[in-house]
Amino acid sequence: MKSLTRPEQISFNVNGEPRDVVIYPGETLLYTLRGDALGLTGAKPGCENGDCGACTVLVNEIPVKSCMVLTPEVEDQAITTVEGLQNAPIQQAFLDHNAFQCGYCTSGFLMVGHALSQDVDNGSPERTVEWLRSNICRCTGYQEIYDAVSSVAHPNG
Amino acid sequence: MTIIGTSVPRKEAPNKVTGRARYTDDINVPGTLNAVIVPANKAHAKIVSMETEAAKNVPGVKAVITGQDVSVLCGDVTEDRPPLARDKVRYSGEPVALVVARDEMAAHRAASLVKVHWQDLPVVNTIRDALRDNAPLVHEKNGEYAVATPPVYPKKRSNIADEANVTKGDADQGMKNSDVKVHVRVSLPQIDHAAMEPRIAKAEILADGRVLLHASTQAPFEVQKLIAKYFKLNPGQVIVTAPLVGGAFGGKAAVQLEILAYLASKAVGGQMVRIVNAREGDMSTSPLGMGLEAEVTLGATRDGHLQAAQMRFYMDIGAYTDSAPRIARAIAAQCTGPYRIANVHTDVFCVYTNHTYTTAFRGFGHMPMTFAIERAMDELAHTLHMDPLDLREMNAIRPNDVTPTKARLTRSNLGDLPQCIEKMRPLIDWNGGKVQSVGAHRVRVQGVAAFWKTSSSPPNAVSGALVTMNSDGSVNLSTGAVEFGPGTKTTAAQILAEKLRIPLDRVYVHEDVNTQVDPEHWKTVASLSTYMVGRAVVDAANDLIGQLKSLAAAVLRCSPDDLDYGEEKIFVRDDPSISIKFSDLALGYKYKEGDSIGGQLMGRGRFIIRHLNLLDEETGHGRPGPAWTVGIQAVEVEYDEETHQYRILKAATVLDAGRVINPAVAAGQVMGGMNMGLGVASREGVHYDAQGQFLNQQFRSYKVMRMGEQPQQYLVEFVENPQLDSPFGARPIGEHAVLAIGAALANALSRAADVSLNTLPITPEQIWRERGARL
Predict the structure, then answer these.
(1) Domains of chain B, residue spans
(2) Which residues on chain B are in Cβ contact (under 8 Å) with A145?
């Protein structure tokens, strides 16, 4: 059992690269990702209690709210942030559908949409809506986001 | 060129889908200290004493500041707000102390150790409480505060912070001449802007005396002026940077955290200090959108012609005035909605309560105001057995009419509402508002509502643009407008590209705003950026073209009048084979022999709003804005008569955009506006308990729209009647789709549920209550 109060080094995989970072055990994954060592500021703090989804990242391909996860919980796990998306279809879909305005919620929606796009076999309009309900966008009418995600999550209707 | 009217992507779009778009909190200097607000947990109480020793002793804490350390009073209009409460607190969530520490955790730990000894005061928890005889006073010094920007008419020894009136014709006589009168009372709670990026500010005071502020703000130049004023600095000393902003909606036009960040930095010898709201503080500590109670009486002839309007609006402005007096005047000036009414009397009151203070909210008061007038219009249609859309079309305000403040309307400064209405009929498949049964206990019904809005901006609002040329003939565009979502920078770039006849990708926009290098832009508010920045950009483009021609004339040995331009060349009009490339002129022209003339070409553009004035104190007459955007909105809902639940099937908007600069962005702006307006009408609202405590400070209790709750179908169309003094005729459209859609929803549901739904939000429980629990 590691110390509960002192900084500790842990290892995990971030966007395909093994990384070692020194953290306080009480740090949220959001805090660690955005900190100086990793500098991955694509995940945004919007509420820091799991309500808004702006900080969503993938842990082992599953979207999670990084404000609700303590960094020690993801030791040795694979994290994907928006910076880890390289020309993913969801990114072009968001551009094509004008699925953002201010852009602050966009990273979170992209990560949920990307996860859905990796599992098209189980895709459906109902699942897309259900998964996207975890995130809030205050600028758009949601239709643009739904259309963008649908085009990669259940492209055949 | 065909850049205007083309759906080009936002300039910063690729950065926004890759996590590379940087907002204020994404750019931090190592070593930055953190400040945390200690919020009041009382809505109205005297501060008897405060204990800060324990907080100061927390390792890492650098300073604890309280109201005793700060004597300045702040306010956009009336200077009634201490940045940190002194002597007493007036709302729960009000900052009473500020802790500055090495890291956020230490600051939070210390903040929790600040102890305040309170003496409770009676809480002014409603507008009714506030207006009672001998009501407890939120501000004992009401009427004695300094006024930064008149006019404001506070009533001493009362909770009335300001009053605005408008009189046109003779409202009493107009009512006597009316065959039919309807009276409507509406009640709307305070609402939160809920921008996804919480407010944040960072401040640093350099050794040379310069103050560097970085903030998520719509008003960097206002921050600069106010910080300079409050702390007796020269404006040039204060440099404000506003990177991309993560949503604003009026809430980031207020100046609050910037002041606290400055105070915090000052307390620690000028080190960089960051202060960021948690979501809870962003709702309860930083300003909200106002609540409203209003009474509207409309008089009309039997055939539906409006004769008179009498209205009283009571704004729940919360504990401090901020921009409320200006909002009150905006409501007064546009109180009739987009209708021709000869006889009008309207009183608007800004009422202090022990609620969180309020500021601008998308629409600047026109959304709640529109709800009141549009509910009354539907009641009138119902009373007259008229088609609600016909009634609106018959009374639509037109060119040559005058507004309630006697501003004259023209084809240029007023959009065409009848044309919008004609387009709405087929768009929503208008059926006259009939309630149609679609199954057991289920009915479908449509509702409509119209809006108008002008800017209510100060009569000296300025904007500017600076265009510099790069060596390859491409250009850099610098403006003072902040980018928070509506594509302001992209629109400005489109206007510049069109004017210079160059491709859009040859225009590089300066994305952040920096008050030291970008030309001043009043504030990025009031949907005015396309008009104001656009005019400045046109001016700068003309200046640059003049410079290009002048330099080319010397090289080509002809008069500048002989020259025209295109494809990044200046050429002789009657013989285009004689030409010179922009790139050969951009940094001066170099002759074969090597000697050179010219120097870097740079276009300067400026704009100041014209012909506006402040409303007259007695009559309220005056000209509040350059032009009025109009439109009509509609919804179709399916309502369950048994459970009172409903589903929004369609939401539609037709507005007169003058000229649509970027169709995809404009449609997105309108859909987003409808979604927000429907959210406000159907589920949003701040709840206070009996002690004035803000109960729902999180998104799990303050409900906003989520995926799947939006209308099944959005319908957006524009008509285009140009505003002649605006670039390419474009009218303001940024805020407008939020204005009447909630009223359209209430109008539809009132008919479906057979009860007047005049209280927001309209939840199924609310409908059940209004129906007196009858099933």
Answers:
(1) 14-123+195-248+252-284, 362-456+621-770, 461-608
(2) 707
One-letter amino acid of B536: A
In this prediction, residue A4 carries a pLDDT of: 66
Q: Sheet of B88-89: strands edge to edge?
A: B88-89, B45-51, B115-120
Structure ipTM over 0.95, yes or no: yes
* pLDDT, tens digit (0-9, with 9 covering 90-100), for B307-318: 999 999 999 999
Q: Using 50, 70 and 90 to split pLDDT, how confident is the model at B591?
A: very high
B247 is written with which tokens? 């949503």
- Per residue in B718-743, pLDDT tens? 999 999 999 999 999 999 999 999 99
**Test the B interface: residue of A142, A144, A151 with most B CBs within 10 Å:** A142
The residue to which tokens 């070409």 are assigned: B601
User: Residue B17 is nearest to which of A46, A91, A101, comparing CB atoms?
Assistant: A91
Closest to A139 (Cβ–Cβ): which among B13, B672, B708? B672
Phi first, then psi, for residue A152 (nearest 5°) are -110, -20
Beta-strand pair A8-14/A78-80: parallel
Question: Which helix (H) or strand (E) is B293 found in, with range?
Answer: strand B291-300
Please tell me the predicted confidence (pLDDT) of residue B577: 97
CB pairs under 8 A between A and B: 148
Nearest CA in chain B to A147: B707
Q: B494 vs B2, B489, B537, CA distance in Å?
A: 10, 9, 10
Please report the domains of chain A, with CATH numbers, ordered by start residue: 8-82 (3.10.20.30), 85-153 (1.10.150.120)
Q: Please tell me the distance from the alpha carbon of residue B208 to that of residue B27, in angstroms, as a whole number.
A: 23
Mean pLDDT of chain B: 97
Confidence grade of residue A1 (pLDDT, cut at 50, 70, 90): very low
Fold of B461-608: Aldehyde Oxidoreductase; domain 4 (3.30.365)
Question: B34-70: per-residue pLDDT in tens?
Answer: 999 999 999 999 999 999 999 999 999 999 999 999 9
Residues B302, B384: Cα–Cα separation, whole Å:
7
Residue with tokens 């387009």: B423
What letter would DSSP give residue B730? Answer: P
Tell which residue, A119, A138, A118, has the closest CA to residue A44.
A138
Is the domain defined by B362-456+621-770 classed in CATH 3.40.50.300?
Answer: no
pLDDT at B772: 87
Q: Would you tell me which CATH number, out of the four given (3.90.1170.50, 2.40.50.140, 3.40.1710.10, 3.30.1050.10), belongs to the domain B14-123+195-248+252-284?
A: 3.90.1170.50
Contacts of B198 in chain A (CB under 8 A): 45-46
Q: Alpha-carbon distance B584 to B318, whole Å?
A: 60
Contacts of B656 (CB under 8 A, 6+ apart): B415, B416, B417, B419, B420, B629, B630, B631, B718, B719, B720, B721, B731
Strands B238-242 and B211-215: parallel
